[in-house]
Amino acid sequence: MSQTVSPAELQAEADQFQAEFQTIRDAVGQVIVGQNDVVEATLTAILCGGNVLLEGVPGLGKTELVKALSRVLKLDFSRIQFTPDLMPADVIGTNIMTADEGGNYNFEFREGPVFTQLLLADEINRATPKTQSALLETMQEGTVTTGGKTRHLKQPFFVLATQNPIEQEGTFPLPEAQLDRFMFKVVVPFLNRDELNEVVSRTILRQQVDVDTVIDGPRILHLRAVLDRVVVSDPMRDYACRLVLSTHPDTEYAPEKAKQFLRWGASPRAAQSLIRAARVRALGQGRPHVACEDIRHFANDVLQHRALLNYDGQAENISVQEIIAECVSSLPTEG
User: Fold this and answer.
1) From CA 200, how far away is CA 149, in angstroms rounded?
2) Given this model, what pLDDT does residue 1 score?
3) Are 236 and 224 within one domain?
4) Is 164 left (phi over 0), alpha (psi -120 to 50) or beta?
5) Domain that holds residue 164
């Protein structure tokens, strides 16, 4: 733990966190129909300082989700539509030459849309790798370096990127180094019958839903400090590490499917993300300590974009999610 806190104080913080987390979910749920898992994963990532990659067809409310979060969490919001002709300067900003009243010329930095708190990178795989890489520093360090000067982004800063799984022509798949910067990859499912009826009813009847601010940026940063005090025992930390190792085909923890169809497994960032996400889930359920179920809960979202299929896996169209599920189910809680 980062500082000495009595069990009673830690439990009180857990109870307060649980109440606030549920209030935020309820407020976002007033705007977003269904998609409970998507909302939970996105909130979890924001609260512990991660980024999220959403994969889903257009029209499932991804933009509305970020707008609702910006209102509920009182954070600045910006949106970038990624296209093949988008340049890095269109994302981070650029230096331009200006003249003062005396006719003297100087360079002035004009901030790009990345200078916000909630950034929606829409269809990020449509931009070229050069432009995609403009987000790497912001996602990892929370800074922008241009013209030899480093500028810090206002915290909390969060990137929610989207990509369309169906339309792949003219796209540039994200490299593994950038995928690894996303704490979660969440597949957004299509709406069921009741949810689709609700969406259509709202849009036809023009029912405007006003959501109230629940917490703000400073409160989010305070909650991150609370998360650092959640107890992670040695067996729980070891379980997360063994779960990551189970995605590597050459380790003793890998199940048969992983050995047969995976070329490479998740990185050390995956183990860190599992622990961070587990801390949020534990507090969200009013517990000041992490359990195995908390680590397993986000295993698919954390690991699926970090495990790479080999040639056999690609040829047989093997689902990475199925392999991750086998890794979770076959791994004993005690090792």
Assistant:
1) 49
2) 41
3) no
4) beta
5) 1-229
Last residue of a domain, one of 163, 198, 229: 229
Is 84:126 a contact under the CB 8 Å cutoff?
A: yes
Last residue of a domain, one of 185, 204, 229: 229
Q: Is 147 left (phi over 0), alpha (psi -120 to 50) or beta?
A: left
Q: Is 121 helix (H, G, I), strand (E, B) or coil?
A: strand
* 92/81 same-domain check: yes
Instruction: Report which of 82, 46, 50 is spatially closest to residue 65, judged by C-alpha positions.
Output: 46
Structurally, the chain folds into a number of domains equal to: 2
- Distance, CA of 73 to CA of 223 (rounded, Å): 13
Q: How many CB atoms lie within 10 A of CB 187?
A: 15
Percentage of the chain beyond pLDDT 70 is: 96
Q: Residues 6 or more apart from 23 whose CB is under 8 A from it? A: 214
Average pLDDT value for residue range 290-312 = 92
Classify residue 330 by burial, with Cβ atoms within 10 Å: 0-12, 13-18, 19+. middle
Label residue 32 by pLDDT band (50, 70, 90): confident
DSSP codes joined into one string, 85-105: T--HHHHHEEEEEEE-TTS-E
Residue 167 pLDDT > 80, yes or no? no
* Cα distance between residue 239 and residue 252, in whole Å: 14
Question: Are 134 and 259 found together in one domain?
Answer: no
Query: What pLDDT was estimated at residue 2?
Result: 44
User: Strand 143-146 relative to strand 149-152: parallel, antiparallel, unpaired?
Assistant: antiparallel
Determine the longest span between alpha carbons in the chain, in angstroms: 74
